[in-house]
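Consider this one:
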Amino acid sequence: MFWKQGLVLLFGILTFFLASPARAADWTHPLSFSNAELSRRDFSGESLQAAEFSNANMEFANFTDADLRGAVMSASVMTQVNLHGADLTNAMVDQVNLTKADLSDAVFKEALLLRAIFTDVNINGADFTDAVLDKAQIKELCNIANGVNSKTGVETRDSLGCQ
């Protein structure tokens, strides 16, 4: 359990330094949608690696099959968002309201999901391998977990460590 807390700290430190304006001039700046109004926006199939969506309103947004690896979606509203088939490997999705979201067939490998709200979500076939979740979240998600991720071949229940 302590290694997960260390991973969270390391991820936070890396996010801070990678998002810092003092980066080397030859680094490309990731897309930033922080504090943006993005409700009902269609991002389906887009490459949004390392994009920042902190404090954004993404209610009803469509991220179907989007590449969100390493994206930061911290403290955002994502109610009824469509993340079907999206890749959120190494993403930071903490303090996010995912009520009634479609997370089916999404990949959350090594994603940070602490304090995310998972009320009435569809996680059929989602892969949470090595994702950072608290015990209450895991218990809640295990109650509805089923299916196999079409990209990774991992069963949702196995990726959550359900009993």
Observations:
- Residues 2-18 form the longest helix (17 residues).
- The chain has one domain: 36-157.
- The radius of gyration is 15 Å.
- Residues 13-27 have pLDDT under 50 and may be disordered.
